[in-house]
Design brief:
This protein has helices at 9-13, 16-28, 44-48, 52-65, 77-89, 96-105, 110-117, 137-142, 147-153, 177-180, 182-198, 209-221, 231-235, and strands at residues 2-5, 32-34, 71-74, 107-109, 126-133, 157-161, 203-206, 227-230. The protein is an alpha/beta fold.
Length: 238
């Protein structure tokens, strides 16, 4: 099965180790993985800020970049969902709407791809430690991926899982929200960190680099002894 990795900006620039873990994991599960180097931002930050015309140029690059891919897999539910919005954004465009639909149809978030497409629930991972899991907003509420991460984590040997209190609450990142509404965002992430502490977890796991960067940054500034990991890193542990 040929899979193209849509790494996302944050993984590409700040968390390259997550991208490596994804490639190693998918290859171990029998996939042939490639990384199209012409990929850029999916356009979400600009689009959500009202720069629709400007964001479309990045979207067109992405549609052309992945036009020959069998499947497109992303480590971010938020960015994967942005591809699902392309058909609406280019609705009525005789050239780009068909391309947008094809891209949306073959794009999956990582855990969604493993469970729903590969039909694998146990990836053979082993991870010793007490963990909790942050459910990111876009991934659960918009993309609709809720069960796949839990299914995979509960089959990881040695992992001790505790559900995160207030798991449905936003961590305060929200892309540009954390910049425009910094004071509100700070209160939201502080609440999230308190909930993580309540679980007595050693590790906070998530499936969206933006949320993890936000929560992890706050944990680090507060000097909390909690490590933050992307779910790909846990699933790739042996």
């Amino acid at each position: 099965m040929r899979v193209s990795l849509f790494a996302t900006c944050l993984v590409d620039m700040f968390q390259s180790h997550v991208g490596i873990a994804i490639v190693e994991l998918l290859e171990r599960l029998g996939c042939e993985v490639d990384f199209p180097e012409s990929q850029v931002c999916c356009g979400q930050p600009a689009y959500n800020s009202g720069y629709v015309k400007e964001s479309k140029e990045a979207m067109k690059v992405m549609m052309e970049t992945f036009q020959d891919a069998d499947y497109v897999v992303s480590p971010s539910g938020s960015c994967a969902y942005m591809f699902q919005e392309y058909p609406d954004i280019f609705e009525g465009d005789p050239v780009w709407e068909p391309k947008a639909k094809r891209l949306a149809e073959k794009t999956y978030e990582l855990t969604q791809f493993i469970v729903d497409v590969l039909k694998i629930e146990d990836v053979g991972a082993s991870f010793e430690g007490a963990v909790t899991y942050h459910t990111s907003c876009h991934m659960t509420r918009l993309l609709g991926v809720k069960d796949a991460p839990m299914i995979l984590l509960k089959n990881v040997k040695g992992l001790k899982f505790t559900e995160l209190p207030g798991k449905e609450q936003c961590c305060g990142f929200g892309g540009t929200f954390s910049v425009k509404m910094a004071q509100i965002s700070e209160q939201m992430v502080d609440e999230k960190v308190r909930h993580v502490e309540e679980t007595e977890a050693e590790y906070l796991i998530g499936a969206d680099a933006g949320c993890l960067m936000n929560i992890g940054g706050r944990i680090q500034r507060q000097g909390k002894p909690i490590r933050v990991l992307h779910i790909a890193e846990v699933l790739n542990s042996r």
